[in-house]
Every structure is written in C-alpha cells, then in structure tokens.
C-alpha cells in the first residue's frame, strides 16, 4: 500500500521512500505484500526470495518456553552474547582486564567506605584509635594514620577508575573497526545478485549509524559489567556487616530489575521501529541528491519537500518514544530503589546492629550499591535501545555470508576463445530474460551485440563477467566452463566498461589505476593515450594528479577515463557496454580506432545501439526478447534480419538528413 501525499509524490509501503505517484495500473505493481524494491543497480530488479528474507530476526528473541520471565531474560542475554562474541575477538584481553580492574576497584572502594565510616564514628565519639579491617588485614591505627590509609586507598581507587574509563572506549573502537571491516569484506565476497539489491543508502546507514550505535552499546556493556561487579562487592561487604539489610537490598534490586523487563521489551520494540525508519530516511536523503536536478527542473520541489516531511515524521515519532522510555526507566528504577533502601535501613534498625561504625558502613555501602544498581539498569536500557541496530548488522552479515561468490579451482593461462552455449537466465525464478542464447568469439575477433532495449544484452554480459550464473547452459572459456576457473584468474584476464561508469574519489591516476597497485605510472599513461584522454589530462593544471572529485569532468571524459581503466592492465577479454554513447563523433572515431588496435590481441565483446560503433565487429549477434535472432556480419544481417535491416535503414536516413 502506498500513502499519497500532496503533489505528485507518494510514500511507498510503510512510508519508507518518496516515490512519484504512479498511474493506477503501475501502482499495483508495488505488490500485495507491500514489499519495497530496494535495488538500484538495474531498474526492475527485485529481491529473490532467498536473499532478502529477514534472516534470523529472532536472533535476540527468546523462545517463549514457560512463563519464567527471569529465565527468559537470562537466555536472551546468552543468545545476544553468542551472536556478539565474535566481535569481541580483538578485545578478549581487555575484557579480562576490565573484570580484574573492576574487582580491584570494588574491593578498594568497599574498604574505603568501611574505613571512612569507622573514622567518622571514631571522630564523633572522640575515640582515639581506629580499628582497621581491610580484607584479612586488621590493625589499630591512630586517627591520622587511618586518614592517611583512607587517602592512599582513594588514590588507588582513582587510578583504577581511570583505567576503567579507558577500557570501554578502547573495546568499543575495536568492535567498531572490526564490524566495519567484516561488513565490507562480507559484502565484497557476497554474490553479485545480493550486492545488486543492496540500496546504497541502506549500506551506508549500516556502516555509519548502526556501527556507531553498536559501538555505544559496547561501552554500555562494559560499564554494565563494571557496575555489576561493583554492586556485587558492595552487597557482599554490606552482607558482612548486616546480613538482613544487604540481602533485602540485593533481592529488591533483582526483583525490580525483572519487574522492569516488560518496559525493556517495549523500549526494544520502539528502537526497532526507529532503526527501520532511520534506514529508510537515509535512503530518502540519498534520493534527494540523486533527483535534485530533476525535481528543480520539473518544478516539483514543493511537493517533494512536503513528502519529505512525512519521512522526517516517520523518524521523529519512534525517536521521541525511545528517548522517553530510555530516560524514564532509570528514573523509575531510582525512585523505587530509594524506597527499598529505606526499607533495608529499617531492617538494619530492627535487627539492631551492634555498633555504630557497622551501621554507618552498611548505610554507605548500600547507598553505593544503589548507585551501581542504577548504572546496571541504565546500561541494560541503553543496550536494549541499540539491539535492533545491532540486529540489522547481523542480518546483513548473515545475508552476505549465506550467498557467497562461487569460485572455481582451475588456473587460466591465456584466453583463446569465449563462447556462450545454450544459456538461459532469469532474475526471478519464474521469468526468463534469456533463453537458449549461443554464440562464440575467438582471440583477435570482435563480436557485437545489438537489439532493442530490454532484449537481454546487458544480462548476457553479466553472465560473461561471472557476475551472475546461468540457470541452464554454460559460458565457456577455451571450451571449459568458466565456473571451474578461479575467479581471480578470470578477473585478471577480463576488463569491463559499463554503461554508466563510476569514478572514485581521488586523482585521475587513481581512477585509471583503480586499486591495482601493481600498475605503474607508465602503464596508466599508456592506457590513457589509447583511450584518447591523455592530451586532455595533460592540459589540466595538475595533469594526472588532478582530483576528479574537485574537477567536474564531462560525460565523454568520464567515459574515456573508464576506458583507460579497462585498458590499463592489458586484458585478454574486453567487454564494453555502450562504450561510446557519451562521445562526440571525433572522440568516438578515435576510440574506435584504438579498439581496432586492441582487438588484434584480445577478444572484444561490444554492446552498442549505434551501428557505427559496431563497424569493427567481425560478427554481430542480434538479440530480440531474450533470444538470439541472428548472428552474422553486417552485410549478412542487412540481408537476412528484419530488426537489423530496420536499424540500418534508420541509421542511413539519419546520416542523410
Ligand atoms: N536486476 C534486474 N532484476 C530484474 N530484472 C532485470 C534486471 N536487470 C534487467 N532486468 C530485466 O531483464 C530484461 C533484459 O534486460 P537487459 O538490461 O539485459 O536488457 P538490454 O538489452 O541490455 O537493455 P538496454 O539496451 O535498455 O540496456 C529486461 O526485461 C529487464 O527489465
């Protein structure tokens, strides 16, 4: 279902993205389930059922066995820890250190509190000596001696606190870095069919916002662990002084913790909504930039802004609720816990603790325990709030890892021939866009692929490049199934110039070298000459060091930089999808000339709509409706293929006009 907003835009299912309003019959294609098509790589791409299914959404959900809320909460912590522990692989030593430091800090603090209580009582009663008990140590000290010991312990506690303040940040930055690297490499190693569906905005949100939230959750987790250890030590120390009061306080804190679980679950639900809304919001922001030119030119800015308001609102509501609950829970906890403290002290009074110093120590220890209990609760709240963001990352990792690129085992010396044999293929299981496609090409030859829009030309190219797998039939290299060849070996032999080439942030040189560090400057320059862009690059003030991001370059220049990129590593197979569509006639002629030269020692596969681009091809494959309609030379096809003859006549008419 789509919600209409003022003007010519609507929100898609769930109010996720701003879309132009569609005619009624087209709008129906949104699908009954209201699924949003996220892919941007090719229009019309949808999510195959396997890849986009929500994966293990119950990763943190706890099986509803029995009604024991306490057990369920503990199980949920266990499940969360199992899923998260791989991300702590670089922090194990830090975790041990954190625990050791927290135990030491707890013991020191409990000792200081007991000592301060004893000194205070000694001062108020005018007693001369202070009986000191620190763990197994017992001594009678003068008041000044006792104060000096208390001061020393406080310094130790401060040093331990500093270390405890450092560790969570250290662990969190490590988890942040590991998560980003894992996400990136899992994405890179996943099959193209999965990558192609991933919206750029969604991936960006995962990498930035979600990873940051998880890093913050790690800080909360570390603080929670510290608080739990400190709480336990304070209660243990208080137990030694007054069993009744301390056990009352401990039991009360746990009961309170479990009583607040429903609120925690509510918080998690709001946070889940927030995480989804935030993801969709980022995608919309990306769209704003992508269509900024068109919305302005079409005068649609006002209604687009109105539609965007709804997007902003979609984030605002769950955000406000999440913030409220996450602030209310610690406050609620604090109020109830204070009542419990008063009850515990009443118990102390009733139990008539024998000495004043003991009473003062119990009070101090329980007040501190209360503070740590609040910190535990705050940590849990903050983790709850961030779990859905973590969840999205884990789901994405699952999705990428469950669909890895398939690899072959054979090496590849040289490419003598390439053929497509009875290949059928569909983006969805129920629709085939290619049927029984066959053609072949040998080294030193160029083959063109021509056909009406949507005929399947780019799809064939994706199979040759091994970006996708045929549903039946084979792509053969030297007569061998390309799937048996190591991906890395095939990648070294093939180069590709896509329909819309992308530049990366960096210099012209970086863009031609394109992360292939083994290419030297000479090879980069040679490729630029062959792509007929060298002279223009040299006319720019910083030549090959010109930042392309800072310098606007024309569509034709961009296309030639990307052609140079393809030529730089001297490939044996070159696949070009409309390589000259943005070139003026002189540049097109120059590029055609260099492709002619390249052809001598390579296999060229060339998709083009303009027949002029295909003039160098030895054979041309005409594709119509996903099938090969004819294969032959230009002259053959003019004679025997209706589509080709028509295109040829149109081309001639256009030239004559
Ligand atoms: N990622 C995708 N998901 C689903 N369908 C797709 C996808 N990419 C292309 N298609 C569909 O496959 C068919 C063939 O598309 P393809 O891009 O191969 O055609 P083409 O001949 O290269 O078209 P053009 O000349 O317009 O680039 C079309 O019906 C198209 O809508």
From TrEMBL:
It is a multi-pass membrane protein. It is found in: Cell inner membrane. InterPro entries: AAA+_ATPase, ABC1_TM_dom, ABC1_TM_sf, ABC_transporter-like_ATP-bd, ABC_transporter-like_CS, P-loop_NTPase, Type_1_exporter. One of its GO terms (cellular component) is plasma membrane. One of its GO terms (molecular function) is ATP hydrolysis activity. The chain crosses the membrane at residues 95-124, 144-167, 213-237, 243-263, 331-350, 356-373. Pfam families: ABC_tran. The keyword Oxidoreductase does not apply. PROSITE patterns: ABC_TM1F, ABC_TRANSPORTER_1, ABC_TRANSPORTER_2. Residues 418-650 form the ABC transporter domain. Belongs to the ABC transporter superfamily. Siderophore-Fe(3+) uptake transporter (SIUT) (TC 3.A.1.21) family. This is ABC transporter ATP-binding protein. It comes from Nocardioides seonyuensis.
């Amino acid at each position: 279902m789509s919600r209409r907003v003022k003007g010519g835009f609507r929100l898609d299912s769930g109010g996720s993205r701003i879309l132009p309003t569609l005619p009624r019959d087209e709008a129906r294609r949104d699908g009954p389930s209201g699924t949003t098509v996220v892919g941007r790589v090719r229009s019309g791409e949808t999510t195959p059922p396997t890849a986009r299914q929500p994966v293990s959404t119950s990763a943190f959900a706890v099986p509803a066995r029995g009604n024991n809320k306490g057990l369920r909460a503990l199980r949920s912590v266990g499940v969360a820890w199992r899923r998260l522990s791989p991300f702590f692989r670089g922090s194990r030593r830090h975790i041990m250190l954190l625990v050791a430091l927290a135990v030491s800090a707890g013991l020191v603090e409990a000792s200081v509190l007991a000592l301060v209580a004893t000194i205070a009582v000694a001062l108020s009663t005018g007693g001369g000596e202070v009986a000191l008990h620190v763990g197994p140590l017992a001594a009678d000290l003068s008041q000044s001696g006792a104060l000096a010991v208390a001061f020393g312990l406080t310094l130790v506690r401060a040093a331990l606190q500093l270390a405890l303040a450092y560790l969570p940040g250290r662990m969190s930055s490590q988890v942040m870095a590991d998560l980003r690297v894992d996400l990136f490499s899992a994405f890179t190693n996943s099959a193209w069919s999965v990558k192609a569906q991933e919206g750029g905005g969604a991936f960006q949100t995962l990498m930035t916002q979600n990873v940051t939230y998880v890093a913050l959750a790690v800080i909360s987790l570390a603080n929670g662990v510290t608080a739990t250890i400190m709480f336990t030590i304070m209660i243990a120390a208080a137990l030694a002084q007054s069993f009744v009061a301390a056990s009352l306080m401990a039991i009360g804190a746990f009961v309170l913790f479990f009583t607040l679980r429903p609120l925690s679950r509510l918080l998690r639900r709001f946070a889940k909504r927030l995480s989804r809304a935030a993801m969709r919001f980022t995608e919309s922001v990306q769209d704003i930039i992508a269509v900024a030119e068109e919305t302005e030119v079409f005068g649609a800015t006002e209604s687009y802004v109105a539609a965007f308001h709804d997007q902003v609102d979609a984030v605002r509501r769950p955000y406000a609720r999440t913030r409220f609950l996450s602030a209310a829970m610690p406050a609620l906890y604090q109020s109830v816990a204070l009542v419990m403290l008063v009850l515990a002290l009443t118990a102390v009074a009733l139990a008539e603790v024998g000495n004043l110093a003991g009473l003062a120590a119990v009070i101090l220890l329980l007040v501190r325990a209360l503070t740590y209990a609040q910190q535990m609760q705050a940590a849990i709240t903050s983790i709850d709030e961030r779990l859905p963001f973590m969840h999205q990352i884990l789901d994405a990792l699952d999705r990428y890892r469950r669909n890895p690129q398939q690899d072959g085992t054979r090496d590849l010396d040289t490419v003598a021939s390439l053929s497509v044999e009875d290949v059928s293929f569909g983006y969805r299981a129920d629709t085939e866009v290619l049927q029984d496609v066959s053609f072949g090409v040998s080294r030193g030859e160029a083959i063109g692929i021509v056909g009406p829009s949507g005929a399947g030309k780019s799809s064939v190219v994706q199979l040759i490049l091994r970006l996708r797998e045929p549903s039946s039939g084979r792509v053969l290299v030297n007569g061998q199934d390309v799937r048996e060849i190591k991906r890395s070996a095939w990648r070294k032999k093939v180069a590709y110039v896509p329909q819309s080439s992308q530049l990366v942030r960096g210099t012209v040189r970086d863009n031609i070298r394109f992360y292939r560090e083994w290419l030297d400057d000479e090879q980069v320059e040679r490729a630029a000459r062959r792509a007929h862009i060298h002279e223009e690059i040299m006319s720019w003030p910083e030549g090959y060091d010109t930042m392309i991001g800072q310098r606007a370059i024309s569509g034709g220049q961009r296309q030639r930089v990307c052609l140079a990129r393809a030529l730089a590593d001297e490939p044996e197979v070159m696949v070009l999808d409309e390589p000259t569509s943005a070139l003026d006639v002189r540049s097109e002629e120059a590029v055609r000339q260099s492709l002619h030269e390249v052809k001598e020692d390579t296999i060229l596969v060339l998709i083009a709509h303009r027949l002029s681009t295909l003039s160098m091809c030895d054979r041309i494959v005409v594709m119509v409706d996903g099938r090969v309609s004819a294969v032959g030379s230009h002259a053959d096809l003019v004679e025997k293929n209706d589509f080709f003859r028509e295109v040829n006549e149109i081309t001639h008419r256009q030239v004559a006009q």
